[in-house]
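Consider a protein example.
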Amino acid sequence: MCKYNLLVAYLSFITVSEYFMRIEAFRVFDVDGAETILASENENINIECKTDMPMAYCGFIHPTGKRYSFSGSTLNAGHCAIKIKASKNDSGVWRCHIGTQETGLEIMQSIEVRVVTKMAALKQNVTAIHGKPITLSCATTKLTPMSYCRFEPPTGQPFSINSGVTAANPILGRYYFPSNKSLDRGDCAVTIRKVKYEDVGSWTCGAGLEDGKEYIDFIKLDVEGLYTMSTASATGITFGAIGIGAILAVLGFVAWKKRRFLGAVRPDAEETEGHEMEQLPERRTPQRTPQPGRSVPQVTVETPSDPSQSPLMSRTP
C-alpha cells in the first residue's frame, strides 16, 4: 500500500510538472512598459490584460483584426485572458479593450506576441537617446540555458559577453552585461553605456544552445532626433547655399554694372582729349595779319621775243 501511494504521488508530480512546464514554456517580458510574449509554434499560450479596478467587459483584437470576447468571474478582479495555440499567423501586436463600471473611455492595452524557433530579440526596433544608456536583449523561449552570448554591432568588432562583464569593467569602456540577466536562464543582453551615432543600425545577437547550434536575431537601433537633426542640417545647408549664391549674384551684378558704366564714360573722355589736341596747334600758331601803311613790292619778269630788242644787247658797240 505504501509503495502504491508513492507511485501515485510520483506520477502526480510528473503530471503536474509537465503541466506547468507546458504552460510556462513561453516567456513574458515587460519591455519599456509593454508586454512581450516569446512562444514556440503550436504552443499553448495565455494572453492577459489586467487592471486595478473591476471590469464591466473585456475583448481582444487579433493582429489581423479578428475579435475575441471574454466573460468570467475574474472580470470583477480586473483580469481577463484568452488561451490560444500559437502559430506564425498569431505573431504581432494584440490589443485588448476594457470597459469599467463607469461609462466613458475604454482602457486599451497592447501585447506583442512573437512566435519564434528557440531564441529571439525581445524588441526588434529600439529607439535610444544620444548619450544615454540602452539595453538590447535576446532570450530563449523555454528558459533554455545558453553556452555563450555574442553581439555584432553595425560598425566595429563583434564581441562575446556574460555576467562577468559588469559596469565596472565594460568592453571597450562601453558595453556590459545587465545585472538582472543570466545566461543560465536563457538571456543574451548588452547595455550600451552611452549611445553614439555610430551605434545606429542593425545589431545581431547570437547565442549557442545545448544542441550545439548558434541561433541569431536582429535588432534595429535608432537614435532619437537623429533624422530630425539631419533634416534640419540639410535644410540649413540648403538655405545657406542659396544665401551665398544670392550674395554672389548681387556682387556680380554690381560689378557688371560698374564695369559697364566705366566703359561708357571712357570713350567720351578720349573724344574730349582728341578735340583738345586738335585745338592746341591752332592756339600755339598765331595768325599774322598785314600791318597798315606798308606796301609790298611787286616784281615783274618779262621774256623778250626778239633778242635784238633787249636793252642789254643795244649797248654793245
Residues 1-23, 228-234, 312-317 have pLDDT under 50 and may be disordered. Helices lie at 2-23, 226-284, 311-314.
